[in-house]
Design goal:
heterodimer, A: 283 residues, mainly alpha, MetI-like fold, globular, B: 253 residues, alpha/beta, Rossmann fold, six-stranded mixed beta sheet, four-stranded antiparallel beta sheet, 10 helices, 10 strands
Chain lengths: 283, 253
């Protein structure tokens, strides 16, 4: 009887934990949804801010985040995947590779503001990219790389060695074996990790506030070297930096809701990818 | 009487890092014969067979001393292209390892990476290889199905067909029946028997009856050393070494 009671208490606590997490999430979504929902309209999504950002929409911020995420993706996706392929498939498993791997893991724990400062030094000043989409995108890309590499490496590790050996035994070169018999099966899971990393980058404020994000810029950027507005930074501005904070609160909530929707959309892509990956495996 | 030598190992030593896994192995695999390697677990028989197509190259820290000769040419010489070697020396692994592709694409894999583009030609070779592996009748209407849908025994014959498709001269079998049922095993043994007309076969097995049934020559290894090598009937009826006798009569192993 005592065992049963212990088991009941155990399960009950586990369940309470799950419900608590879920409740917090619901509350959070409800708060943002109810306060920001009223602001959302076609005009809000398609117009630039007006009158010192007390009126108008957030279109430049949406597009800015879109552009900067593309730059981020162009750096983080190929470089992350190639680095992972090298680390998992080609590199000798020596003390040096272990050190490199450890460093990459640790980089993913570096606070994003530190990446922001590093971006200023490297891209804005040293490479003379200025405060621009390019600088901000590359900074976010650097920040995403540890995630991309780690996720891609795990994906490659999950491919059974027999696929590689089987291909080699048929006269494939190492690269042929990887390209035709490893990458196609690792790709969905590599992309999953990468997109999750991008979603995180798209929501970051600290790395872009010194490297390219503009406080108020009601026109769209024309080139990679222009400054831009971005959703997370705009939200930060509306929530803490604006001269009439209480007046623009609804805009802040609307921005938060749009940002949230964007992240959820990217996660949805991940879910679909995962689903497709499982289906392929089961076949 | 002496048939032509196809593969020969001379004073072969093999190391995993500092651990020596094979010591001075001298074995001959004659052309168009089946040579079996037997011995208790960890004796080095799998290590040995994997030196024959240089599959051990990919293991970090692996090192080979001595020579393996294929048609009299050392396969560890720098002049040898290991990719080409592996098309000449095919291998079937312990666990059936079909690729997660269709049955057709599995067999065509080796042809395509070898650069064959002609669709009709590929289809011809695929059919021929499946027939040679006695699998054609069972799969001819399911070529577009995923190879994972096949039973374990069928998967292993698929792997055999896949190897045969690239037209090897030697076929290596690394415990090919250890993961499949007795009926499927019988089919594969039958296949190995027939294959020696066209190929030289080397098989690793932990099943002594299997070695006795399918092979012409048998090598008995223990703890990385070759204990005895000879005609299969002689090894099984009249072993010269006490250790061989103890092993085949089931006193250990």
């Amino acid at each position: 009887m005592k065992k049963r009671i212990i088991e009941f208490i155990g399960f009950f606590s586990l369940r309470v934990c799950v419900y608590l997490v879920f409740a917090v999430l619901l509350l959070f979504l409800y708060d943002i949804g109810s306060k920001g929902g009223g602001t959302i309209s076609w005009k809000f999504l398609s117009e630039a801010p007006r009158r010192g950002m007390t009126e108008g929409g957030i279109f430049p911020a949406i597009m800015g985040t879109f552009f900067v995420t593309i730059v981020t993706a162009l750096l983080a996706i190929p470089m992350g995947m190639f680095a992972a392929i090298y680390l998992n498939e080609y590199a000798k498993q020596s003390g040096l590779t272990r050190l490199i791997r450890l460093s990459i893991r640790n980089l993913s724990g570096v606070p994003s503001i530190v990446y922001g400062l590093f971006g200023v030094i490297l891209f804005v000043n040293f490479l003379h990219f200025g405060t621009s989409i390019l600088s901000a995108g590359l900074t976010l890309g650097l920040m995403t790389l540890p995630w991309t590499i780690t996720a891609s490496e795990e994906a490659l590790k999950a491919i059974p060695n027999s696929y590689r050996e089987g291909a080699l035994a048929l006269g494939a070169t190492k690269w042929q074996a990887i390209r035709t018999n490893v990458l196609p099966y690792a790709m969905p899971s590599m992309l999953t990790g990468t997109i999750l990393g991008l979603a995180r980058a798209a929501g970051e404020t600290a790395p872009i506030m010194f490297t390219g994000a503009a406080f108020y810029l009601p026109v769209l950027p024309k080139s990679l070297s222009d400054q831009f507005m971005a959703l997370p930074y705009h939200l930060y501005v509306m929530a803490t930096q604006h001269h009439a904070i209480s007046q623009v609160r609804p805009i802040a909530y609307g921005t938060a809701l749009v940002l949230l929707a964007l992240i959820l959309l990217m996660n949805l892509v991940v879910i679909i990818l995962r689903y497709r990956m499982r289906r392929v495996k089961r076949e | 009487m002496d048939p032509k030598t196809k593969i020969e190992s001379r004073h072969l030593d093999f190391y995993y890092g500092h651990k020596q896994a094979l010591k001075d192995i001298n074995i001959i695999a004659p052309a168009n014969k089946v040579t079996a390697l037997i011995g208790p677990s960890g004796c080095g028989k799998s290590t040995f067979i994997r030196t024959l197509n240089r599959m051990n190259d990919v293991i970090p820290g692996a090192r080979v001393d001595g020579e393996i000769l294929l048609d009299g040419v050392s396969i560890y010489s720098p002049k040898i292209d290991v990719v080409e070697l592996r098309t000449k020396v095919g291998m079937v692994f312990q666990k059936p390892n079909p690729f997660p592709k269709t049955i057709f694409d599995n067999i065509a894999y080796g042809l395509r990476i070898g650069g064959m583009k002609h669709r009709k030609k590929i289809a011809e070779v695929v059919e021929k290889s499946l027939r040679k592996a006695a699998l054609w009748e069972e799969v001819k209407d399911r070529m577009r199905e995923n190879a994972f849908a096949l039973s374990g025994g069928q998967q292993q014959r698929l792997c055999i067909a896949r190897s045969l498709a690239v037209d090897p001269e030697v076929m290596l079998f690394d415990e090919p029946c250890s993961a499949i049922d007795p009926i499927a095993t019988a089919k594969i043994e039958d296949l190995i028997q027939k294959m020696k007309q066209n190929y030289t076969v080397v098989i690793v097995t932990h099943n002594m009856q299997q070695a006795a049934r399918v092979s012409d020559y048998t090598a008995f290894l223990m703890l990385g050393e070759l204990i005895e090598y000879g005609d299969t009937p002689q090894i099984f009826t009249n072993p010269k070494n006490k250790l061989t006798e103890d092993y085949i009569t089931g006193r250990f192993g």
